Amino acid sequence: MDIISRAEWGARAPESRSTVPWSKRTVFMGHYSAASATQTPRQIQDYHMRVRGWSDIGYNFLINSVTGDLYEGRGWTVLGAHCADHNTESIGVCVIGKDQAGRQDVSDAARRAFKWLYDEANDRKGKRLTLLGHRDRGSTECPGDEIYAWLKAGLPIVGQPPATQPKPPAGAKPAPGTPIAFPLPSGWYFGPVTGPDYSVSGKYGRTFRGRTDRAWLQEWASQLARRGWSVGKGRSWLGKAGNDGIYGPEYRALALAFQKDQHLDQDGLIGVNSWNAAYRNPVT
């Protein structure tokens, strides 16, 4: 799902910002704006900065209650200003709209966007965040009765259209296991240590979504093994060093072979397409 960036919705630059490590994120908190769904993120930001005197828009993300459009606020790891004394632990998501008795004010599109964002946060954290409403941590009616009841019910989606899957080739089997989202930021990849910062080699022990880069690279190669590839020390692929999570010639050779098998661009780098193919493409 696309997130509309700050640049796209015309955000003002923050006056200051502080970051929060994922290790301190434990809560995913729902809010509502208690105003018209025609409100824009920029209008909310202007109110927060000019009237409340905050350094930026208060929320980490925002969702239009009618269209389901999903907006970047402060983002994943920037300290918010949405719940006093609980901004470090929680990611605050505001549903732009009202809560009026006797009607559903939050569309299915908005609910799907909220649930997608929650699932994405759990993937990045590497474990399940506690799902709360603003009123659980403050004296307020926020996020309204409708949204709050939906949060407490576990975010059930009503009217969600069934996903359509392409028909796999004859004789194909579904990919084994549960799909895992690509763990690196957009445009990054697993590649050589001599590459740019966004080439993740596993050598420096960087952490992404709660796991080290080495663990993620090992996970990808292990998924290929589950798909039937001979991977590991003494085997056809990664035979010398084994699946040690340090990108080098052996991982490059494995990536090239897998990319050729899956009809992907053959560059030997493990980006989002090579990652997703391992978890989602049928095994033929």
From TrEMBL:
Superkingdom of the source species: Bacteria
Family: Belongs to the N-acetylmuramoyl-L-alanine amidase 2 family.
CDD domains: PGRP (cd06583)
GO biological process, alphabetically ordered: peptidoglycan catabolic process
Pfam hit, one: Amidase_2
The Peptidoglycan recognition protein family domain, residue ranges: 1-138
An example molecular function term from Gene Ontology annotations: N-acetylmuramoyl-L-alanine amidase activity
Name of the featured protein: N-acetylmuramoyl-L-alanine amidase
SMART domains for this protein: PGRP
Gene3D superfamilies: Peptidoglycan recognition protein-like, PGBD-like superfamily/PGBD
